[in-house]
Amino acid sequence: MEGLFLFMALVASAKLHWSSIFWRNILILVNTCSLTTLPYNLSLNTARFPSLQIIATGSSSFELQNEVSSPLTGRKIEFNLYPLSILELKNHEGINALAGKLGHILKFGLYPSVYLSEEDKVARLAGEITSSYLFKDILAYQDIRNPRILEDILKALALQTGNEVSSNELANLLNIDRATVMRYIDLLEKIFVIKVLRAYSGNLRNELSRKFKVYFWDIGIRNALLNNFNDMSIRSDAGAIWENFCALERIKTHSYADRQPSFYFWRNYQGQEVDFIEEIDGKLKAFEFKYTKSTAKLPSAFADNYKNSEFIVVNKENVFSRLTS
């Protein structure tokens, strides 16, 4: 009976825009958006019924962070659900089947609805996700006075995928101030549209440290922003696509394994660079992302200054093993 009263209280607080599944001592609330009193009812009821497990999901990361997190401090575990990962797909479909879909993934990304759609529908679906759902959080929950600036910044970042980004250069390009650029970038990272990668520096004079790189959590979204779903074989930005894809798949692998390394890129003023760096317990792993199978060598300046670092080359032949371990 207590479980029934609890369920009714949660229904009253949630009002609309959600659905639920109630089974034994587990209550699942799906798409808990636009709620007001729900966070406090969750807090009260978890205290009253300690054996009850509540799973609350929502598409608005702003709303979940701002409204739900505070009342539940110390009584919650947060999980981020990204687009599908090659780790998940490898375990489900096997490497051979997945390898045959790599070209499709690099064009259209790994949003579940896109990945599972028929070939003739995926481009349209990826475009719809980009034009509608992509901007939902940031436009609905933030004071965005000029949505066009948001679109311009996203397209500029898409064009600079894999390259170092200067906030000052972006501001000049778009004719807006630097603070506005950084505010939008921060918001886009919070709603998991982009991932910002900072430069690694051991405080050596010849290492870059001020610029950053931006990757998209889903490569299909990036391609949709540029309205370009061409095959890798004819793309001038194939290297950028591959780097974006590999970096984010590696980050997903660590996240789902509950590991929390720091991620960077590295470059010095002489032009030597490392695409992607992981740092765990003071140990460095340096990655070079090459779409085609070719030889690569760790830059001499990096090798000399970070002698105990591990060097890993990822290409389309070994991607499903190198990025998922």
From TrEMBL:
InterPro entries, alphabetized: AAA_14, DUF4143, WH-like_DNA-bd_sf, WH_DNA-bd_sf
Leader sequence segment: none
All copies of domain DUF4143, residue ranges: 136-291
Transmembrane region(s): none
AAA domain segment(s): 49-89
A Pfam family annotated for this UniProt entry: DUF4143
Domain of life the protein comes from: Bacteria
PANTHER family: AAA+ ATPASE DOMAIN-CONTAINING PROTEIN, CONSERVED PROTEIN
Protein's UniProt name: DUF4143 domain-containing protein
Organism phylogeny: Bacteria, Candidatus Roizmaniibacteriota
